[in-house]
Amino acid sequence: MRHELGLWARRAGPLVPGLLLCAAIAAGALTLQALERRLLGYPYLDAVVAAILGGVALRTWWQPDARWRGGIAFCAKTVLEIAIVLLGASISFGAVAAFGLPLLLAIAVTVLAALVAGYGFSRLLNLPPRLAVLIAFGNAICGNSAIAAVAPVIGARAEEVASSIAYTAILGVLVVLSLPLLVPLAGLSGPQYGVVAGLTVYAVPQVLAATLPVGLASVQIGTLVKLVRVLMLGPMVLAASVWMRARAPAGTARVPLVPWFILGFLVMAAIRSLGLMPDAAVSAATTLATLLTIAAMAALGLGVDVRVLGRAGGRVTLAVVASLVLLLAISLLLVHTLPLG
User: Fold this and answer.
1) For 119-155, b where at least 16 C-beta lie within 10 A, e where not — what string?
2) pTM given for the model
3) What is the C-alpha separation between 198 and 224, in angstroms, rounded?
């Protein structure tokens, strides 16, 4: 036993400096988010984005050497994958099934259309294929979490991940602030607006922020629609894995058909849905997933060359905006076509 502990310590030891660095950046990002919430009432720059920007800022004047790189790489990959597994605890299949088949199919079609359109817009703007996939996933499914989940499957570079998350996050805040204007402009009822918010807003906390001003019915249905989108993360990442395998040149290393963390995500969702996970454990898993994701984003930021971000900035912004506008248009068509309230 003592020998095994010593072996584990020797293997983990080189990772400690980089892990502590990522944890420190994440702690700073969380502190900034808490200050925003206290002073402004809402964290307009959330901790995920702040962690990326903190890592990028540090990387602009200091390049980590071998002492730091092992822990940073571990945090950017393995820690992120663990966070995705824990995210599955936020999903309840029972709540999803309560929607009924017509709305579930409508949400699935909307997500698929947004994925295809987001990728198409990005490629028309000459963005690299991997960056186009990240933008499409971020817009169509769940913003930062979807980008982080698909990135290791498609072999995305740190610059591509940071770029897609940064621009998606900025637009996400603007959507939260402006979306309630659709209620009078588009003649939406509370439940209809909840569906639109659930289909277009990136993160669950942002859905709450966007729907609370409209009413409780909007909050409830918006949150559930958003969770259905999150549930599509597993199947869509699996599809991306199949796509990458088909595109891989002969003789190259094969991407695993089903990444282990997506299997873990689905297992966690099943455990939650079967009632085998107490509410306290669900809350703890969700919180830990958030903290690990923030640390992983700090690690990704530490691998980013700002000059690369600058070269793609305008095209990335245009691709994200075009994708989101189409998603919003499909959502409005949906709520005015189906009997949703």
Assistant:
1) bbbbbebebeebbbbbbbbbbbbbbbbbbbbbbbbbe
2) 0.63
3) 7
- Record the tokens describing residue 76, joined without a space: 């950017």
Q: What is the DSSP letter of 257?
A: S
- Rounded to 5 degrees, what are φ and ψ at 304? -100, 135
Per residue in 93-150, pLDDT (tens digit) is 776 677 677 778 888 888 888 888 888 888 888 888 888 888 888 888 877 778 877 8
CA 22, CA 80: separation in Å to the nearest integer?
A: 12
First to last CA, the chain: 62
> Tell me, what amino acid is at 193?
Y
Q: Nearest Cα to 54, choosing from 80, 83, 78, 32?
A: 32
Cα 123-156-153 angle, rounded to 5 deg? 105
Residue corresponding to tokens 């990442």: 237
Q: Residue 1, SS3? A: coil
In terms of C-beta distances under 8 Å and separation of at least 24 residues, what long-range contacts does 56-60 make, across chains too?
A: 56/162, 56/301, 56/302, 56/304, 56/306, 56/309, 57/301, 58/25, 58/301, 58/302, 59/301, 59/302, 59/303, 59/304, 59/305, 59/306, 60/306
3-state percent breakdown (helix, strand, coil) of the chain, nearest 5: 80, 0, 20
| Tokens encoding 130 | 């991997």
Reference 196, options 170, 181, 205, 43; nearest CA is 181
Contact 216, 187 (CB under 8 A): no
